[in-house]
């Protein structure tokens, strides 16, 4: 009889469904086994501990977000900031479950219990993202004369606040919210 192979993505998707239905505390090996309908061996083979599972859920969500948004850092700073805001909303609309992972915050995934490799993977990705943000902020400061705190509020906090109300309530993000966020960012940076 052929051996049934379960996809790692399906296992991680099951973990994210548990988070969406409850919280990161609901992500347990036993819960994922039940939710995914897979054998314990399938899960333990990939994720020998809950910490490994939590790290994989967080890192996959962040890496997916970063991969889709990194290209928008290029170009003129105000246009880049506006594009980042619009595409943050678009990514959250397209990936609401992974957006809920990010909304839960890193601390919910117990990063101090992760393996050194998982922590290094997270830190390397975050360092790359932070370099992009610093370059964008430097360009925006030069172009607009605004302070860093104000720029962070406009570029980072506005898109986050816009999607948070829908994600935390489990509601669909409106189709026009990206347009609204882009207009707000452009108006504030004008």
TrEMBL record:
Keywords: DNA-binding, Transcription, Transcription regulation. Residues 28-47 bind DNA. It comes from the Bacteria. Residues 5-65 form the HTH tetR-type domain. InterPro entries: Homeodomain-like_sf (IPR009057), HTH-type_TetR-like_transc_reg (IPR050109), HTH_TetR (IPR001647). GO terms for molecular function: DNA-binding transcription factor activity; transcription cis-regulatory region binding. PANTHER family: HTH-TYPE TRANSCRIPTIONAL REGULATOR BETI (PTHR30055:SF234), HTH-TYPE TRANSCRIPTIONAL REGULATOR RUTR (PTHR30055). This is TetR family transcriptional regulator.
């Amino acid at each position: 009889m052929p051996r049934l192979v379960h996809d790692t993505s399906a296992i991680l998707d099951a973990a994210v469904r548990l988070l969406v239905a409850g919280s990161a505390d609901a992500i347990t090996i036993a819960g994922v086994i039940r939710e995914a309908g897979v054998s314990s061996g399938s899960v333990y083979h990939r994720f020998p501990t809950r910490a490994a599972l939590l790290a994989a859920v967080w890192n996959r969500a962040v890496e997916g977000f970063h991969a889709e948004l990194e290209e928008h850092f290029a170009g003129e700073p105000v246009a880049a900031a506006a594009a980042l805001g619009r595409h943050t909303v678009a990514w959250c609309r397209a990936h609401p479950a992974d957006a809920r992972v990010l909304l839960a915050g890193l601390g919910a995934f117990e990063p101090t219990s992760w393996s050194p490799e998982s922590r290094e993977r997270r830190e390397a990705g975050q360092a790359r993202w932070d370099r992009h943000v610093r370059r964008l902020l430097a360009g925006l400061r030069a172009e607009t004369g605004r302070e860093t705190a104000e720029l962070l509020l406009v570029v980072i906090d506005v898109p986050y606040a816009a999607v948070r109300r829908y994600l935390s309530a489990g509601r669909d993000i409106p189709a026009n919210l990206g347009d609204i966020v882009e207009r707000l960012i452009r108006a504030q940076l004008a």
